[in-house]
Please model this.
Amino acid sequence: MEANVKKVAAILNPPAPHMVGDGFRVHNFFPSGYKLNMSPFFMLDYNAKIEFSARNEPRGVGVHPHRGFETVTIAYHGAVAHHDSAGNSGVIYPGDIQWMTAASGILHKEYHEENFSKKGGPFQMVQLWVNLPAKDKMSTPKYQGVKHSEVQKFNLPDSAGVIEVIAGDYEGTKGSVSTFSPIEMYNVRLNKQGKVNFNFPANFNTGFVIIEGNVKVNGSENAKTDQMVHFENEGEAIEIEALENSVILVLSGEPINEPIASYGPFLMNKPEEIQQAIADYNEGKFGYLEE
Model:
C-alpha cells in the first residue's frame, strides 16, 4: 500500500492577500503565489473568510473580458451575482457553484448580491481558472450554474461526512458539471474523526484547499484552515482524517500538455492568439454588457 500513496509535496500557507476589484480579498495560491504546475487548473484565488461591512452599493468587479478558459466560482459564505454578455445571470449562495466557459470570448461582471451587501457578514469564496485544450479554446461560451441542492452527494460510511461531487466521479457518484478534460473536483465535508480515501491517477495534478478545520493527510501530516496541500505526481492513494469538523476542496486533473500564452484575462497557446484576442475585444466581438 505504502508504495502507492500519493505523497504530500508541500503544505502551503496562503500568500499575502490582494484585492480583486473592491469585493474579493484573495490569496493567489498559483500561478503567482507559488510556482505550482496544477494544469488543467491555471489559477486559484482563495478569498479566505472575512467580514464585509454593510453598504448600499455592492462591492465587486466591473465588466471585463475572458477567452480561452473557464472560470469556476465556489461559494462558502456570502452571495455573489453574475452577469455575462451571453445573457447568463445568476446568484450563488453557500454551497453553490458557477462554472462559466469563456472559450471564444465573453464579458462578465461579478458583485456581492444586493441583500448580502446591505446586511454585510462573513464572505468566503474560491475562484479557479480552468484551462481549455487548444481544440476547445474557440468553442461557444456556456454557463453552468449548480445550486447546492442539485450537487450530487456521496454519503461516507460510519457518518464520516459527505462528498459533494462538483465534477468527475467519486465511487460512482458523478459530478453535476461537464468538463472538457478529465477533472475531479469535490467539496468534502468531514465530521470530527471522519476518514475518507481517494484514488487519483499518478500523473494527475492534485491539490486540496482546507476551507475550514484541521485534517491529517496520509496518517502523518497536518493541514489546517486556509492552507493548501500540494501532492506529488506519483502514487494514487490519499487518506484524509478530520481532527475536527472540516471542509476540504479537492482538485485533481489530467494535465493539458500544451504551450501556454497568457496575458491578463486571456489564456491561449501562442502569443499571436493573445494579440488576436485583444484585437477582437477592442472591436467589440465579445458582445456587450452594461456596467
Summary: The first strand starts at residue 8 and ends at 12.
